[in-house]
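Data card: per-record layout.
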Amino acid sequence: MELYIWIYLLASVMWAVSGSECQFPEEWRGRWHEGRRTDISINSMSHKGTCIEREGNKYFMLNKDSNNRKCFKCLVFIQWHPNLLQYKESPCWYEESFHHVCNLINGDALLHTLVKATSSPQPCPFQGSYTFSYINGTMSNLPCESPISEVRACADESKFKFAYKRCNGIPGTYDKEVDFQCMATWENGEKYLYGSFSEPWMTRVEDYMYRCFMHSFYGTHGDMSMSADATCQGLQSPTLGSISLKFTKDLNQPRGTCRFTDILVSRNKWRDLSGAWFLEVEAGLQVLRLKSRKTGDVIKYAEVASALDTSTTKLVIKCVQNTYTAQTKTANVLQTDYITYVTDDECKSGYQCVRLIKRDTNILEMYLGDRLNGTVASCTDANFENAKKDLLIPDVNDAGQCSITRKGVYTYQDKASECTGTVNIGCATPNKITIDTRCPNQRRAVASTHTEKVEILDCLYSWTSGSKTFIIIQNGEQRAKCLTFIDTEIGVVELQSDDSCQSDRWTVSNQYINYVLYSPPDACGGSEIQADQNTSYEKPDVEKHSDTISRAVGLNAGHLATIFTSILLLVMFRVR
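The structure for this 576-residue chain is written out next.
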């Protein structure tokens, strides 16, 4: 009996070991698309059976036929790209022979293609705008050349818009605009591309049309053949497929012939104060890319190497011409207007005026003017009448690099309420602003009752313009905002949140900052507010009363611990 138990245990271990060896690679795990099927999971490939043996890229699967009889399949995989897998499979065979079943796969076997559902789009192997003619080989051998079709570039290098034109008298041609996104590229003797077509009515990924291409681009021309379905079957050459396309580069697109301001040299990424988008500077200062990112209220800086890039390119800006007549330099302010050629995320291109104003080494204002009907000799103020001002700062965490010029502990009175308090600028902690607020509690009858709030803000950057000093502030990784010190004509200093910086206004105790400051008799003298950095702390009423009682009896945590220990020892002694 004991022998049978040992045999059973040994068989179980051998089965577990053999099963564990038949595992699909970790990087293949997750959902994949195969044509219109979007529910394929390579964790088990359960729709193909259960893997019982593996040898290299060959997987031996236990399956059942249509009559529910046990049979065996062989799957042979090849991965050309992290986003793409291809495989061939044998017919279901009733003999459990790994090598024999795998040998049943011949060269004519159907080549299946899988594309990862969560794949990151890839830059297309061709860039720019093209015109093209095409042959729909499923219905005709005649090329559709007039009217000519177009491929329009998009801001995102992984996207294009195909605008097909219908040619009279040629079947299989049509008027249609479709969006195309590149998913994978690879080489296997020829150059291949895999991507998806979509139209506005396609609201589900199941509706997307996946296609495989073989391509060859040379100089200003190119050839590309397209498969008839989601596989790569039937592609024989770049000029022979179910649909064949012949491309010609659109040479009317202007190239970058000027350089943007040198302030962009030191930083290759700049973000707006909200952190919702950033400006990426290409080498040579001829091209800017405006990208959006999904971060909510939390700012993720470019220096965090582990963070995945989830940004989407919204606008590509090419410098075409500097308009030096609009260039001024006063009080370290440098303004330059540019004629640019832009391409947006809707694949529309055209000329646009762009104004960049350097406020300081790390402060840049950007205005995107109206789109132009063709090029103009220069940009004027009229081109920016409806332009929104965007304040840009380097896309890095530069807290601690700010130079605060108004250090001191100020008392203040809120102009819009009965709140008072102190503003500690650079005294408690260098390059930090601490706001201590005390407001009457309107919900209680006791007049002395009040709420307290301490706000600690990082100073990122600052600059001065006339009677105003602007400070870019941030609390931890929240959105950056703007504080403004204003020297008034009556000799007092006002502190306001976002006076012309045009960012979201900062609030303390649900009130916008709008204070009158009283200059300190001794800068950074007297008491300093102590609190945890990057935090906002408000004492509840119970805690405030507890603090009052503790101070009245002169007790602290150490005294209480000593008393408690003495009582405990006394009790233990009496028990003995």
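Known properties of this structure: The CA atoms of residues 127 and 151 lie 10 Å apart. The chain has four helices and 34 strands.

See the next section for split statistics.
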